[in-house]
């Protein structure tokens, strides 16, 4: 039982330290440079994201069912203010249509593979279908 707890703790520590370790690089910048270029670029990126979302086939089908022309919807997005585009892009990003599910599945597979390798190397004995090389 102690081996299992030790192995589980080690696996969690390995995953957290390797997944969330990022190097921070900072340097001084002029506020005007950052605000003018990043805001306009971010808004245009969000506007393009909304237009791309409107071009998807299932969205076009739904708009047609509601009686909205897709070209007219794209023209309306072009006429939106920056704040409205930001709110709309945030709503699109937060919709739960499977976005982010790949990260969870990837993390589960990664943990399984780490435990499998440690089991094969003989550090743990979690899975009954593996044989240790020791």
From TrEMBL:
Extent of the signal sequence: 1-23
Pfam families referenced in this protein's UniProt entry, alphabetically: DUF6627
UniProt cross-references to InterPro entries, sorted A to Z: PA2779-like, UCP029543
Top-level lineage group: Bacteria
Entry keyword set: Membrane, Signal, Transmembrane, Transmembrane helix
Transmembrane segments: 104-124
Listed NCBIfam families: PA2779_fam (NF033919)
Protein name: PA2779 family protein
Organism (species): Paraperlucidibaca wandonensis
